[in-house]
Amino acid sequence: MLPDGAKGPGLFFVLPCLDKLRKVDLRTVTFDVPPQEVLTKDSVTVAVDAVVYYRIYNPIVAVTNVEDADRSTRLLAATTLRNVLGTKSLSEILSEREAISNSMQVRDS
Questions:
Q1: What is the value of pTM for the model shown?
Q2: How does pLDDT run across 56-66, given as a tens digit for each residue?
Q3: Which of 27, 32, 52, 71 is most buried (CB neighbours < 10 A)?
């Protein structure tokens, strides 16, 4: 890690034997959570999928704390979807879609 932090756009001198270059996309990224079957609280199996929007706000934390931030985000989204829907009944899922969506939103600065 550089003493003065991450570098922005432009040309930089990198020594391959000493330095390791990691590119981090700071734009909003979208991906689909693949369809999966979830068992609800009332033991009904439902097929669900989702769309996730995320953006990395702190590239230094994304590079130093996580091996692959994109893959970790995908796994976290699928796990969170299963966990949240597993605590709801089918009628709650159908009637509270917006509230469930809001409860799954995370903002970590």
A1: 0.77
A2: 988 888 888 98
A3: 52
Please answer whether residues 56 and 25 qualify as being in contact, where contact means their C-beta atoms are separated by less than 8 angstroms: yes
| Domains of the chain with bracketed CATH | 29-104 (3.30.479.30)
**Cβ–Cβ under 8 Å, residues 1 and 64:** yes
Instruction: Name the 3-class secondary structure at 29.
Output: strand
pLDDT per residue as tens digits for the range 73-89: 999 999 999 999 999 99
In three state form, how does the secondary structure of 38-105 look?
Answer: EECCCCCEEEEEEEEEECCCCHHHHHHHCCCHHHHHHHHHHHHHHHHHHCCCHHHHHHCHHHHHHHHC
